[in-house]
Amino acid sequence: MSDHIENHGVYASDGGTTATGGSAVPLRRLGPFLFLGSLGFLVTASVNQTLIQQILAEWDPLTKVAHYSMVSLLGSLTQMVGSVVFGTLSDRTTSRFGRRNPWLLGGGFAAAACMAAISFTDSFPALLALWLVGTTAVSAFTAPAAAILPDRIAENPKAPASMIAGLGQMAALVLNGFIVAALLADAQAGLRIAAWPIALAGLALFFGTKDRQVKVDKGTGGIVDTLRALRPPRSKDLYLVLAGRFFLMLAIYSLFLYQLYLLTDYIGTSTEAAGGAMALFGVFLGVLGSGSAIVAGVLSDKWGRRKPFVYLASGTMALSFVPFLFSATVTSFYLWAALLGLSYGLIISVDQALVVDVLPNKNDGGRDLGIANLANTVAAVLAPGLVGVLLTVTGSYQAVFIAGIVLSVAAAACIGPIRSAR
Q1: For the whole model, what pTM was predicted?
Q2: Domains in the chain and their CATH numbers?
């Protein structure tokens, strides 16, 4: 398996390590694996979220929202911490198989095993415990996966690389609807199937891609140096990107995590009809999102600009909430799906490239991208609480829709002051 490491140069990292294998990999070789990595992770994550909601609803309809809020909150907290920790550890991993690949393989299989084990429990405490271990393992996969782009891709095609990974996400969201519709009738049994795509993605990345090996510099590499490497970087632009991503993801999660309840409780569909609507939602999201991602990825790389696409994505996201303000119908749900798809496609095609543009030190990419990914996990932490508070205080989903519009506008406002990217 030593052929998983390329040795074409040496470069130094601030974390007391020296990494070998500095040559870039052609996008045509790595692109399919970026696609598979995103696809496998998000199929597992998105399907399991909905199946967990259904399991909780079957156990006790009166406590389903409170219990799911706890599951989502605590699971996101473990991912928030894990993103930084595992990103930093992967920066400093000295395995002969590379610094990212061992985490991708181990994290993927550990996450899948925990998610599948949930299907055999019949108590909320056991479900919660397994979910927390599983989400910790997920972060051991996602943090190193995010660092693949600055690690191994040449400078010029960053936006197309981000686009390809984003298309994997889009494909996952399309499949999500159909998988959920097929598995929703027996959610616990469905988990035994839906848990494993992330493991298969880890397997593909480990055996299909070459990784860089790092060696700890003399006199470094101990616990103190590792803890020192966890210190956040000093980069105003990185934190502005993080803030913009946070607001936009909070707007997305405020409804995306509650699709099932939005359909059954706000619009008034049956569970069976909700499954069909979510399947069609995935088609809208996937087709429109893939189209906008391809166009934005090509144009962003051609023009060397990221900001205009983030502005457009934020505006489109704000518009996606408007139909719900006037109509509690499945038609509004599909309009939201269409506009969300356009917006999300724009974001995924340039967002990761924008983060890479502002990285202060690409050799610490695992740590810094883990910090950037806190925007996603913190948004997932706060979204259930935000929705819960708004529904409790106002008794209406209208407040959630208005909050989504405000958050989308705030996301655009954070991008303007960035100086190290256009």
Answers
A1: 0.69
A2: 23-415 (1.20.1250.20)
